Amino acid sequence: MSNSNRYVYGIVNSGDIEFETDAVAGADRVYTVSHRRLGAVVSNIDTTDPEETDEDAKRHDDVLREIMDYDGGRTIVPMQFGMAFESDRALKNVLRGARPAFRRAMNDIEGRVELGLKLVTQEDASVDPDEIEAAVEDELGPLAAQTVPNGQFSDRLVLNKSYLVDEDDRPAFDDGVARLEDTYGDDLLVQYTGPFAPYSFVDVEIGAQSR
């Protein structure tokens, strides 16, 4: 089997990124394939259709976090799991074609991270969802550059949102979540997660191509 295929984690501004890590499908190194001022952060893989196992999905997310922390911090436009290309040439063709979209996405998320907040009603608790949503918006809304709602997968789930937050505003956002927990912690389970690469705020779709 050949490892000439490239598995893509995300897109960064130009500048080499290279480090050893536990990458998708058993790879042990990630690096950049560059076109003009964009770079795709990749690892080698022996297929263009990788299976999304729990282990590899976690490796994908872990590599994105390592890239975000790399060399003092890097902004990355994250790709969903499974983007793989047959060659550097095929990948560069995609970078060329989607360059304006990647540039717009990069500008939107530069210096920002995604944070997640779920509020779940404790058993036997009674809450006013509208009141809680208004309180969360007052506390956190001004600190977020963008906000998106996520799925309501349970009757006990009062709120499920993702927030795009400037790194400089992270401490204030953390404090806001802590105040909400102090206020509502007897009635609500507060699940605060992140930072993540900002999947929820990037809408760039690319397809595997081989030319």
UniProtKB/TrEMBL annotation:
GO aspect biological process, one term: gas vesicle organization
InterPro entries: GvpL/GvpF
Gene encoding the protein: gvpF
Superkingdom of source: Archaea
GO cellular component, one term: gas vesicle
Family statement drawn from the similarity comment of this UniProt entry: Belongs to the gas vesicle GvpF/GvpL family.
Organism from which the protein derives: Natrialba magadii (strain ATCC 43099 / DSM 3394 / CCM 3739 / CIP 104546 / IAM 13178 / JCM 8861 / NBRC 102185 / NCIMB 2190 / MS3)
A Pfam family: GvpL_GvpF
UniProt KW Endoplasmic reticulum keyword: no
Name this polypeptide is given: Gas vesicle synthesis protein GvpLGvpF
Keywords carried by this UniProt record: Gas vesicle
Localization: Gas vesicle
